[in-house]
Amino acid sequence: MSRRLDYWEDLVPEKIYHIYNRAVGKENLFRKPDNYRYFLDKWKQHLPYLEVYAYRLMPNHFHFLARVKPLDDDLITHLKKQTTVKSQLLLHGELSYSKYLEDQFKRLFSGYALAFNRQEDRPGALFQKRFKRISVKSEMKLLYLLAYIHHNALHHGFCTAYEDWPYSSWSAYQRLEKRSLLNREEVLSWFHADPVRARALFLEYHREFRLDREMEDYVYETFEVS
Fold first, then answer.
1. Which of 70, 93, 165, 180 has the most CB atoms in a 10 Å sphere around its CB?
2. Domain ranges for the chain
3. Percentage of the chain lying above the pLDDT 90 cut
């Protein structure tokens, strides 16, 4: 049975969230390969406060599975180098961490949209105003969302094999010898303590993954993919 969920939860340290957003109307967010890369660069710039486990960028929407990092010494140092009003308010205890992160998402979206609009010679908003985020409260949902995100392009008919879509975290899990900003070690530990066994189980789980109607609320998408 479908349950009412809060799609705009506070972003709380140490909690893991399914985070997603889409373009307005029938627009696309990404039209060229460079657009996908630029969006990821902007994500890294504005959101070092999130530990990313998985992502997939689709032409008109995106999905991320990520944990909110606590404000440790490194992040405090990073904040002190920022010159925004919101960063100073957070440092002085006058703004919540969640509100600050919401503002960082706005900066990500507005900065990306500005460049995209210049490229496409279009005016106006590009992203839906409010991005959705749902906290993950069980291991079952966590593993389901991990595989769901990696399969998303297949579900929308953009490829015949989920491994083939280039704009996702999947490739980083196939080339473990290469450096990545993803926390792959933690993800693999969800499957087994032994790294070799963990990777085998990770791959097996993805091969056998099937959509589950009971999970629909946690992967909510009310839009057509163009």
1. 165
2. 16-219
3. 76
Q: What is the pLDDT of residue 165?
A: 83
The overall pTM is greater than 0.70: yes
Please list, in sequence order, all residues whose beta carbon lies within 8 angstroms of the beta carbon of residue 33, skipping any fewer than 6 positions away: 166
Q: Which residues contact 5 (CB under 8 A, 6 or more apart)?
A: 134, 217, 218, 220
pLDDT surpassing 60 at residue 224? no
| pLDDT at residue 215 is higher than 90 | no
Q: Determine the Cα angle at 184 with ends 178 and 185, to 5°.
A: 105
Amino acid symbol at 225: V
Do residues 17 and 68 touch, judged by C-beta distance below 8 A? yes
Tens-digit pLDDT profile for residues 160-187: 678 888 999 999 999 888 889 899 999 9
214: tokens are 């009971």
For domain 16-219, the CATH architecture is 2-Layer Sandwich (3.30)
The string of pLDDT tens digits covering residues 14-42 is 999 999 999 999 999 999 999 999 999 99
